[in-house]
Amino acid sequence: MGASEGVRCRSDRKIQAAESVDSTPDTTAEEKAYLRDAVDFGKGCQKDAGALMAHVSTTDTARDMDLMRQVLGDEKLHYFGISYGTELGGVYAHLFPKNVGRVILDAVVDPGADAVGHAKNQAKGFQLALDNYLKSTGRNPAQGSREIAGLLKRIDTDPLPTSSGRKLTQTLAVTGIVLPLYSKEGWPTLTSALESAQEGDGSELLALADAYNERDGEGKYGTTTHSQRVISCLDDKQRPTVEETRKLLPEFERISPVFGTFLGWDTAGWCHDWPVAGQFDSPEVSAAGAAPVLLVGNTGDPATPYEGAQRMADELGEGVGVLLTWKGEGHGAYSSGSDCVDSTVDDYLLDGTVPKDGKVCS
Predict the structure, then answer these.
(1) What is the pLDDT of residue 350?
(2) Residue 5: is its pLDDT beyond 80?
(3) Which of 118, 226, 272, 331 is catalytic?
(4) Residue 90's CB: how many other CB atoms inside 10 A?
(5) pLDDT band at 3 (very low <50, low <70, confident <90, very high)
(6) Catalytic residue among 23, 83, 227, 256
(7) CA distance 196 to 192
(8) Which residues on adjacent β-strands are paired with residue 135?
(9) What separation, in Å, do the N-terminal and C-terminal C-alpha atoms of the chain show?
(10) Would the CA dihedral through 19, 25, 27, 29 be positive or negative?
(11) What is the spatial distance between Cα 80 and Cα 177, in angstroms, rounded to a whole number?
């Protein structure tokens, strides 16, 4: 991932070309193009990664982490994981419970969810964050969501022009809306971008989508989403067919009128015809005998809803999972503006002070 040996599945030119692929296909031709693009992406990953592609699972990485611990001569592994890093931390605790030191997991992934379950969780989480954003602007969440869904439908038919000369497609528009929901500080930016888009200019939403996709001013893209897909498709056995996805779409649309269709179709395309088989339905994180693991759950988290922290606490086992709740907004709680959260995490990481299970920071 990142600056290490990240897998690159596509050239920058191909990534930009794929922006024209409709991620919420409405016709047979669009479905075929969507699935063809998914297959092409997987083949690109395989060509770049080769044999490594079968050895980048969460379990593989957890074992690598323990090897690092041994090489460094550490008796215990002290670890701070956020978002996907919480799944990695939970799997490590399961595999090496006696080696667990002071472990903090923030913005916790639901360990009991399969691929479809994760997509539903994200649809719920991002819709909740959008509702909270709309309330903050004095708007009715249901009406505001209908207006945004209507905007996205119009963009699906007629992509918006931008100052760069590129078109803002529906997929890029959804991506642009998602990014500022990761932090409350991004909400004013979202207001401006949506207002511009309603007036026919997609430039601001495109800039937000580019930031999410790690696209710089020269048209070069980062590889985080490539690594994420390679890892998750190696982890997850579940491979929903197009027919299964179509049956799921009404439920996704009920969960979120703005993000549901996009995330519903994602279950079919994400690992479609993937070159490597998935390993499990959901990760095993039970860790009897491990030291306390501090789980930080944010009630307004869009990407990893709060329920994931509760589920992780249960699955780690009695006396292991210690839940800290923050009644806040954004993806992750630590260093997000709560002195209560920050001091609790610092006290545990630096001094080994375990807070009372169920502590709440408001």
Answers:
(1) 96
(2) no
(3) 331
(4) 29
(5) low
(6) 83
(7) 6
(8) none
(9) 34
(10) positive
(11) 28
Q: For all residues of the chain together, what is the average pLDDT? A: 96
Q: Determine the Cα–Cα distance for residues 325 and 343; give it in Å rounded to an integer.
A: 13
- Quote the tokens at residue 71: 């090489």
At 6 the pLDDT is 76
Among candidate residues 37, 106, 114, 301, the one labeled active-site is: 301
Closest C-alpha among 236, 361, 354 to residue 290 = 354
Reported as a single tens digit per residue, the pLDDT across 264-312 is 999 999 999 999 999 999 999 999 999 999 999 999 999 999 999 999 9
What is the C-alpha separation between 172 and 15, in angstroms, rounded?
Answer: 12
Q: Is the pTM of the predicted complex or chain greater than 0.70?
A: yes
The 3 state secondary structure assigned to the chain is CCCCCCCCCCCHHHHHHHHHCCCCCCCHHHHHHHHHHHHHHHHHHHHHHHHHHHCCCHHHHHHHHHHHHHHHCCCCEEEEEECHHHHHHHHHHHHCHHHEEEEEEECCCCCCCCHHHHHHHHHHHHHHHHHHHHHHCCCCHHHHHHHHHHHHHHHHHCCEECCCCCEECHHHHHHHHHHHHHCHHHHHHHHHHHHHHHCCCCHHHHHHHHHHCCECCCCCECCHHHHHHHHHHHHECCCCCHHHHHHHHHHHHHHCCCCHHHHHHHHHHCCCCCCCCCCECCCCCCCCCCCCEEEEEEEECCCCCCHHHHHHHHHHCCCCEEEEEEEEECCCCCCCCCHHHHHHHHHHHHHCCCCCCCEEEC
Q: Decide if 252 contacts 61 (C-beta within 8 A).
A: no
Condensed to tens digits (0 to 9), the pLDDT of residues 229-253 reads 999 999 999 999 999 999 999 999 9
Among 231, 161, 167, which Cα is nearest to 199's?
161
Tokens describing residue 116: 């479809």
- Check if 83 is active-site: yes
Whether 196 and 151 have beta carbons less than 8 Å apart is answered as no
**CA nearest neighbour of 122 among 333, 266, 334, 26:** 266
